[in-house]
## 1
Amino acid sequence: MASKRRGLPEINAGSMADIAFLLLIFFLVTTTMDVDSGISRKLPPMPEENIETPEIHKRNIYVVLINKNNKVLAGIGSPTNTIEIDGNGLISETLKEEVKSFVSNNGKKDNSSESPEKAVVSLQNQEGTSYNMYIQVQNELTKAYNELRNEKANNDFGRDFDKLDADEQKSVKKFYPMKVSEAETKAN
Amino acid sequence: MSKFKKGGGKSMPAISTASLPDIVFMLLFFFMVTTVMRETTLKVEVSPPEATEVKKMEKKSLVSYIYIGSPTQTQQATLGTKARIQLNDVTFSRKEVGEIQHFINAERLSKDEDEIPYMTTSIKADSDVTMGIVTDVKTELRKVNALKINYSTKKSKDAN
């Protein structure tokens, strides 16, 4: 075996790294770490027939109405106050503050909720309401609840809400249950 | 300083780069495995609204997606310009919203029975659609008892 004597010339593997890098960069670029995020909600189950919906006292319900012109009206019992929206379509802080004071009223004021547990935010929209505005309002409502929960967490445990363990979070959530009722779209 | 210069005469041995391809290949395989090519091609245009209070979605395998938006430019010839609902690869008009029930049932069949309660429906709607169609979708979801939903949103940059 003459060749064995000379030894097979080794294939130069120096460019292997380059090839691998090329592939690596291709996959790096094409990978979309598509983090899905959004606002989670739970829909109410379909109402069964012949079952009366429980009456909610007016003081325990905060109505937010977004009409077809994307105007936001809000108020306890019935949507009475207009919530201002600035030129960029951002909702003023008033909505969040009002929801917060409504939920955390605890029966102090006669015309506001009896307890966070009984407080319900009713979100109503119309056929022509834009989805964007709807999400903005949902966002404000979530923010109001998140801030309340954060305050509670800081009071009870001295930490922010997301730093609590599962059980502690549960107890805070139980104190401030998020009750957002989404009524069916009103025609016109 | 002379302490360090003892071997000055000899040149530094080159660092062996023989293992470099291995390292790169390892990274390569990682990315190859984690890359998910999108299965459905979108026929409707969806640019979700922005929000600050967003949460990441867990358990992606248990999420079914419903896209709502107006058809993309290339699809407008066949589908028109009105907002449509896309489930998997098929789009439906607002009148055919009942298809969602079949879609959800099909999704349920493909999952384990004990996982069904954890299934979430992600509504990926364009910020320009009106609530009418979204509400129709929600009503259908309520009819099939798929109550966990998620409004897909982008995280806005000006989060305070």
## 2
Amino acid sequence: MAASKPPSPAISPPSLSFPRATFAKLSPHPFLLAHLQPPTPPSANTTPPHRPNGRLPTQFRPPNLHTGSLTHASGSSVVRLGDTAVVCGIRAEILPASNVGCAYTCGGSDDDTEIQALGLLVPNVELSTGCSPAHLPGQPPSPLAQTLAARLQSLLYATNLIGADELRIMYVSPPADDAGEGGGAEEVKAWWTLYIDILFISLDGNPFDAAWASLLLALKDTRLPLAYWDPDLACVLCDDLVANAKRLRMRRWPVASTFAVYSAQERGSVGGDGAGKWILADPDAFEEGLCRESVTVVVDCEEAEGGGVKTRIVRLEKRGGGSAGKAEIKEVVEMATERWRVWRDVLKGNA
Amino acid sequence: MALSPLVLPGDPIPPGALPTSSNPSIPLKLGPGLRHIPPDRIVPVVAGELCIDHKKNAVWVETNGGRYIPTAGDLILATVHHSTSDSFSCSISPHTPFASLPHLAFAGVTRKTRPQLNPGSLVYARIALANKHMDPEIECVNPATGKSDGMGELKGGMLFDVSLGMSRRLMMPNPSAQGSMVILDEIAEKVPFEMAVGRNGRVWVDAEGVAKTLVVGRAIQETDEGNLGVDEQRKVAKRLLRDL
Amino acid sequence: MTLPDASLSHIHRADGSATYLQNGYSIIGGVNGPIEVGRRDELPEEATIDVIVRPAVGVGGTRERHLESIIHSTLQHVILIQNHPRTLIQVTLQVIRMPDSDTFNSKKRQFSSPLRILPSLLQTALLALLSASIPLSTTFTASLITVARGSNTVINPSPEDLQNARSTHVLAFSAEGDLLVAESQGEFEIGDWERVFEMGLHAARSGSENRKGADSDVVMLDDDQGGALRGLVQQKIEKDQKWKENIK
């Protein structure tokens, strides 16, 4: 609506437009659509469509990492993706074998079942920190926090990140006689249990990627003190020399990437087939509120010869809608591989 | 009568299955269980039997489950929960918002002679207004004629819950012939009774004494829960009458 | 593979109910709604969906919350929630029986695999919703598929298949063939997943192919999950409409 006559300079004209933030609040769905839709008619010199946060649809937020900031924890990390910031702290406790009900045979290669059966890795997610208006402080764990914890735990176990031998505290009985015969039998006297606490300081979308990255970094940063079984005291003792503490060895480095699927058709409206859809990488809170469909891929790549990488998927989660099919999933996996490269480079710089 | 085709939500309805009316001026009527997706798709939203009335050019999906959704014009049995300054709040089905029944929506009442209904009273009423964004409104008077048309408070008797499909069967003009509810005739031969059926899956029965009322109520409920055929209904009626 | 079995609307006090048996799982689902919603959960434009999963043993934990969130987001897409604004549709799924390989005491239990039960939960929820006549935009078919070493894909795997599986996948397709849920874990490549996708789609499709001939007699195929669903619902509706047979 163009005003036909120029407004008099004395009275400021009634504004016919609102600031961006007002539009985003008033009609979020068309606001996002207007950003994503390519301009018509297409011209050569226009910039490609951007999301309201200034990113391209397939652009992730650059990660910002810091490790070892909590001095009292065995390992800790801070990860920031834009306005999503997470602190992860790991506390190691000793689980004596005498406390384990059924005697667990050690030495097998049955790593995964041992860690799972004893529950040696315990992630917990805390969202009630005032990190976002949707999560009030002082509330019991929200379904989102519980879901995140379940997803993290299941991914931790399924990926076999840490070998069970890293967490065992062994005892080699001394030779029974002078000739050095007998004895030498190895026995598991205790295990390390790692309590992994993940606190969200600020939540602006995509909690899973940030939580998983902080968990991995904190595990990498974890130093377990040298622990040994004292047969005279019949308990586990720890060496207090930092130099003797050992770092956890991580077997692999799977990277999680989350995408939201935005469809031009607003919910509740009927008809209008063939409406466009966009895959938005690393969605922020505003976009998550508008997209019901989401895809999370966790990939673990191997660097093949000749600079290429071989992508192995360890987890795929897609839910909440039907617009992403086979082709879209393939596209998403390719983007996740790219994301894996970014993380690898960041970690190389960080290490 | 052969069973009409079964439809599941989202099934395409072939154009041949839509009613063909001899009179093109009657618009196609979509009954419950169907939705129209512009421009020309008609899709079922519930699982059930696709029913067609060629004369009225109407199509709907018949199903026997679920909760009653208030629809304007339906006759229902409502329980008065409490009274406010100008209306009664009545419950149509459990755990749903109360329907309001204005004090003046009764036949022949004025501000001076408004009816006194205690909490727990049962009324036979018609849904005057229902839409998904508002709580329903009901009335016990025909607004056109000012007559009660049989609506109003029901005194005595007992209330029985049945499925929605059963209440539709009972509301047919001749339930025993059109809805194969022969059990009603069987029992009426021995036990005279009065009955009021609400679309919300409730049946009110009054006979001489509690025992006889219960026999009628049990007969309807057993027929409903067991999906009894004609012969089974006769057996149940015989058994119930013998125990009386 | 085992064909699923189910009974519908057998709980008279609930608005809709279903018991579903498949692969050794037995689940009772109950649906109540649309009912009044608490002020805090009320949505002005659509119905709130509440999914509760109760395990066979003990009380629900984070694992159940995770399953609930998957089912919730799926149902939110399938139910026409804008038809009943400011109401609550409550779906309760109680696990009655688990196969022996999944019980708590079994040493071979795969702790990290809540996926195995997911197809049965999804299917139970759908049947209970159909029984409650909640308006839905479509139906769906969920299946469990494993990829063994050597890239051998199996649909509706046996306990041994699960034991040998390198990756486990749950896929749910709508009647139109849209991918609604894809949950995979294990280790696999995109090629494996694409084969799994085709397999799941085929199983779901064979059901919707039957739909086109809806007025002809429904043919039940052995490897046909979508058809099985239709058969189960058909049984229920025929039972409901039995009284009409006597009407001339």
## 3
Amino acid sequence: MVTIRPGPVNAGGIQIANHLLLAAGVLGTTGASLTRMLSYGAGAVVTKSIGPLPKDGHVGPCLAVLDDGFLNAMGLPNPSKEFVEELSVLKGKPVIASIYGGSPEEFAMVAEWFKGSVAGIELNLSCPHAEGYGSAIGSDPSLVEACTRAVTKLGMPTWVKLTPNVTDITEIGKAAEKGGADALVAINTVKAMRISTGLGRPVLGNRSGGLSGKAIFPISVRCVYELYETCKIPIIGCGGISSADNAIEIMMAGAVAVEIGSAVYSDVRIFETIAKTLYSDDGIPSKDIVGCAHE
Amino acid sequence: MMVSLQRTLWGALMSNQFPLTVTITGIREETPTVRSFSFDSPFEFDPGQFLMVWVPGVDEIPMALSSADSITVQKVGDATAGLFNLKIGDKIAVRGPFGNGFFKGERMLAIAGGVGAAPLLPLALADRVMTFLLGARTETELLFVDQLDECTDLQIATDDGSLGVQGFVTVLLDDLNLGAYDKVVVCGPELMMRTVLGKVAEIGIEHRSEFALQRYMKCGIGLCGSCCIDPSGLRVCRDGPVLSGDLLIKSEFGQYMRDASGRKKTI
């Protein structure tokens, strides 16, 4: 199997210890759980998405485990500004704050709270199950550009996480690039639904939600591949990555690093597990892998 | 299934990741505020494990199994009130059993406050518990008195003194030789549990004590992080809900917990 040479990565203006990051929305609600993931080998961690006001999220059920993935609709629960305090235990660590808002002004306000406490900002323009937020904004190129610009102006490295629930993801990627984004993160969850046949109603309290895990990996690869063809800024691959080979594959599509979320379910030390087979001292330099499937 | 079936400590299989529809077959009024709901599908489980219980149209909440086919519920919020509105024959759906269970002991001391007796009942019925300290606000709120009296040395405390010793259940600890037990297992209000932890730590046996924690949970399977405790980041739903006393001494336990939004609230 293909291995890559270990070493730090610079992805979109952020220095990361390795290619494997914790994705937003997984074990990212407290400083303690983020610290734990860093101690288990994550190269950097992305927080739970933080918004302008505290939110309890949707009523349950918020998650269902499927044969090949997970369906969730958490509803962006977050403590809002109070979360900045959670990060006090993570001073100087590679932490990226995921944020959301309903307008460019709200994005800028929330991003500003994190100035000085994080290595960068990831804009959640892609959550598929929060009315007025996430993909509701993230499927409109002009809004994506405006929200991105409102944050990049603040001078922090800014990544934009994209939704796959659009006809052409490259339109959205180009809009983020135009807004000054330092990197794209592709992809967030895929809008989906399951129904309990026993109860005759959708299994999520919010009815529909986002699909993650192995089932969406082919969609992630395709989106990264398309974005690599159309955008110049770095891409972070995300969506269903659960093995070293998956990481290599999405890097070949064009990703400079990967975010891992759902795979934490079967192995809380997934970062260490993947690193063991991903890296070897005589491996290929990662720059030779990134995007090689396009040649 | 994403994960091959894992055996838990006592040998139960983790299962039912997708909501399993069950029919309520029995409702028993245990006390004026507590009811047991039994359903038509028994689960292989370890005492201490819980189900995510979906009350259709209301919410989904974690509830400890009080037997292979029942949960014992106190009416405290929307979802539990929703459960109390259900009748025999109504359907709910459950995911689980999730989390770990109490470690096995041979000479166990169980300490329960209020509805905290629910996950400890199956341990007592399995003949694992030498002494069972049971506390409640008042006599009519004591849970499972007859069943526990048959299988353990049951000692009772009530806040108002209507039955047993007057005071919190922890007053019963003063007359016990804690060193005589190989495990001390505790479930109940967190301040009561913190008092027990203080007492076992005084004599240096906190590593032999176990506490069943309650935290706000969304996913129930260790992914979302809403139930993580400080400063370890342990997930109550997956690494717990039963946690050893030595992991809890320097922690948020007894101090604060987080609400649905993740904001801290003092206990």
## 4
Amino acid sequence: MEVITHGGSTVSDDDSVANEYLTFTLGSEEYAIDILKVQEIRGYEQPTLIANSPPFIKGVINLRGIIVPIVDLRIKFNLGKIEYTPFTVVVILNVAGRVIGAVVDSVSDVFSLTRAQIRPAPDFSGTFDTKYILGLAAVETRMMIVTDIERLMTSADMELIDATATSS
Amino acid sequence: MTIDMSQFYQVFFEESAEHLAAMEGLLLNLDIENPDSEQLNAIFRAAHSIKGSAGTFGFTDLAETTHILENLLDRIRKQELGLRADMVDAFLESGDLLRDMLEAHQGRGAVDVQAVESICNRLRQLSAGPEEMAPEPAPAGGAVATEAVQQPVGKHVFDIQFVPTEISAKGNGVANLLDEFRAMGSLEIISQPDAEMHNLGYWQMRLVTDASQEAFSDQIDFIAENGAWRVVEDVSAAGDDDQAFGIFGDSPGAPDAERGYGFFAPPLIPSSEETDGYGFFEPLPSPADTAKERPAGIGQEGEGYGFFAPLAPSASLGPAVEEGDGFGFFVPLPSVPDVLPEIAPRSDDPSNQPAPPVAVEKQGAEPRGRVAKASASANANADSSIRVSIEKVDQLINLVGELVITQAMLLQTAAQMQGDTPERLVNGLAQLERNTRDLQESVMSIRMMQISFVFSRFPRVVRDLSSKLGKQVELKTSGETTELDKGLIERIADPLTHLIRNSLDHGIELPEIRIAAGKNPVGTITLKAYHQGGNIVIEVGDDGAGLPRNKILAKARERGLPVSDQMTDQEVFLLIFEAGFSTAEQVTDVSGRGVGMDVVRRNIQAMGGRVEIESMLGVGTRMTVRLPLTLAILDGMSIAVGDQTYILPLSYVVESFQPQSGDIKTLSNHARVIQVRGEYLPVVVLHEVFNLKSRAGDFTQGIMVVIDADGIKAALFVDALVGQHQVVIKSLEANYRRVQGISGATIMGDGHVALILDVSAIAGMAKTSLQKTG
């Protein structure tokens, strides 16, 4: 089943139409992702290790009969303290027809953001490649990094998808 | 009558594709010298079914082409024409075109109109050719032929009645037909439907023409609702003859199977018709013995219509029932006017022509149907299967998988209660386990299909290709009943086709070369499928030239591939799977471009399978494809390594034992081997392979599991054996990617995920590590 690309990079042309975004924190940074890509939010459970996988891939869990890989974004982007407590949150994402779990520090809010509110991000070099950033959004004093989560998760950097699968 | 036809389209496409496949298979099996009439009939039925349903659904291009095809087939099966090899070729080609049309109707690809045109013409020529030489009397049985009255010359008067289908009525079908009639002669419309009915309804007309009924009855059949048409020649009106004949009307392209009607023609005085075999006879108070003889003669015809005129109502039914698709018409004689005509109709055998009009005393009398039992068993197979969408089956499989997990969880919970478990609960759980396993097996088997589904297309490939290449090749298949998952069946077809083409092109030599080499000029390609362990093995073998090792090595060097003379034959042969690699001296349109073999390997690997090549120069080559049974329930042994649990497919496990200190020796101070029953096996230490922390301090604290992966043996060192389970294989690739050494994942009784080891890959690791050091 193809996931319909919604919001994110293909936000409608009308600047006043708002899309809803889920925000989560990684260390001190706040990220916003298209809420339609989020399937559910659940607590962290010890996954089954996958041998010889990169450290940010924690393993796989059983999500009601589906084998779902778990990625720790904190390790991937080197942000925040890497600890697993009963309050550690896993955001289950539904991107590119796949189900992927992402470990984040916490989930904070759901915001409605219009296209006009999302400003282009300045070019900067960092761990988080700008090609996955759709822009920056300011709500009151907070700055949120609006992320193209689908692009990020399907990228070769994440090593979640076979190279042959992505190239085709 | 507003039924949305489109909902049936998919069924039509599937069925037609199946009919086409069946037709092709039968055509390839036909013995041209001496065709089996049963096979010819089956081919005809397939063509006829396609035509019938194509007409119903309004796919006129399909229907028209099949119609022409069917005409020729019909003549062959009635032995009016001898079967020739070029006819088979034409049939096969038209089958391909029909398939293209089907695809085009489904929105894939386009039809080559010119090709269709040319094949239609070819078929027409094949069908018409000999007719011009010998305008023959109806050869429908000896007894009939002698009675046949030659076609009267001059004008004929036809009474035409039909009910058009909705599609043709709303379209131009009826109007075109009427135009055609008018062009043929004078047309008088006796009754027609009301204007607001848009031509839909009952038409009756009278046509005076010098053309024969043949010329237009086909068109009526196209336009008319299944079977709802009738043409009767009114000979008396034509003032031709005065004899009383019963006519058994023509019916090329007859109404469809389901409608076994008899039309009772008015007691006219008809004449004979050409081409199609009618049995007719005088329903006059003729001597009883001739009447009895005749049906017997007709009944033996493949056609199998027995018409006879019983003198008494009790006249024997025998001749009609004898034949599977036989009809018996009992035409009452004028002397027994109270007898209703009886039909022993058939079967939904589509090759049957509809019950033709029978001259009876009582016009319009309702025929009484009687089902011929002979055909019932023949159709039992068709009736006992249903079409179910694959999604439903997959959903069922998933649900059963969940059930198995739940059941395993219950069992584990009960086991943890130790002695406190009530006996009845234990018994109930044991029964649940059994039932669940049975249920799972049955559900899994729904998705399984016989590999003959794929194999059946290869005789055609071999036939076409060998004639193109001027080689003589015989294809032998075995193990067609081996079952594998439908998903795999669909994906294995292309790679296998490539392998066979490759064998044909590069493997099998030309007949002259074969004779010079002292071989049978006819090469053999063997196609074999069987189960081995948890795998399906498909072998494509040939007795051709074999792979030239030196040539492959030279070619590889030329292409800058890293090769050495020390490489094993296996490794050298695998080079042919490299992209762009071809040793063919010249590029043909069959192969030699070097694309294909790399695709083969990629496709097979994508299915989780492997290809191996064995070859001997001058003797032949064998390519072995091993595929996993992805959906099968895996019998697995769970093993512990560190804090992780893995599943080892039980089919690979030979034995396990606890090693003693000193059992393990090293080679070149790196690779370890262990002696097991006089054999030195490489040791694979699982926690090293997977970078885990072992709980076993040294080898004596763990367990050695001897595994045998397709001939490669290795000793796998693990911390402990945990237990034996039946596990449902879940794909790791659905949401993640392929992991080296892991073939899949499963969910254990406690809800945790356990990974299933890819034993072959692990054994392979052992082998390469030995080779590197040794």
